[in-house]
Amino acid sequence: MSLDQLIENCKINDTKAQGELYELYASKLFPICLKYSRNYAEAEDNLQDAFLTIFNKVKQYKNIGSFEGWIKRIVINTALQRYRSEKVLNIVNEDISEDIEIDIDDDDISLKYLLQIIQELPDRYRLVFNLYVLDGYSHKDISEMLGITVGTSKSNLARARQILKQTIENYRTQQHLQSL
């Protein structure tokens, strides 16, 4: 069955088609959920909630643009909605303007460890970091998505980078000391 036919069948609440759509996209969407979640269990919850939203809103998809892009936006918005409802985004603007570079050498920092330390960032920093660095949204877009100012978005990104840089430096120091 073609993707277009699968989508049309989902629009008429065909549970078999919904199951096929889930099987087709769950493995692609779960890493996105993981980026925007505090842990694995929360990512699983976000994925399930996102698919419920996808199935409820699939009738609104007009076959214009990428279907995968459309469902990715739903996944990100589902995760962000959890934080909006928890009020974790109401923050004070921290005036940090320097652009911090993080030196990551593939030989000593694993992708798994990097994902772990990103997940450990405070919510407001992790969300801005992921939206800006990993998904390519502008600070203007982020400010609209999260209901914060552009300046707050920029300072949260800088703070996230500071925390990650310090965490990586501490990790490297620990690794060096263990090798002595």
Write the layout of secondary structure elements.
Elements: H1 3-11, H2 15-35, H3 40-57, H4 67-86, H5 111-119, H6 123-134, H7 139-146, H8 150-179
Helix pairs in contact: 1-2, 2-3, 2-4, 3-4, 6-8, 7-8
Number of helices: 8
- The percent of residues in helical segments reads over 70%
CATH topology of the largest domain: Rna Polymerase Sigma Factor, Chain: A
- How many strand segments? 0
- Report the major sheet: none
Structural class: mainly alpha
Global shape = globular
At the fourth CATH level, what is the homologous superfamily of the largest domain? Answer: RNA polymerase sigma factor, region 2, helix turn helix motif
Over the alpha carbons, how many angstroms does the gyration radius reach? 19 Å
Q: From the coordinates shown, what is the CATH architecture of the largest domain?
A: Orthogonal Bundle
What does the average pLDDT come to?
86
How many distinct folded domains?
Answer: 2
- Strand % is under 5%
CATH level 1 name of the largest domain: Mainly Alpha
- State the order of secondary-structure elements, H for helix, E for strand: HHHHHHHH
Q: Which spans of ≥5 residues are poorly predicted at pLDDT below 50?
A: 89-98
**How far do the termini sit from each other?**
59 Å
Family: Belongs to the sigma-70 factor family. ECF subfamily.
GO biological process, one term: DNA-templated transcription initiation
Organism: Confluentibacter flavum
Protein name: RNA polymerase subunit sigma-70
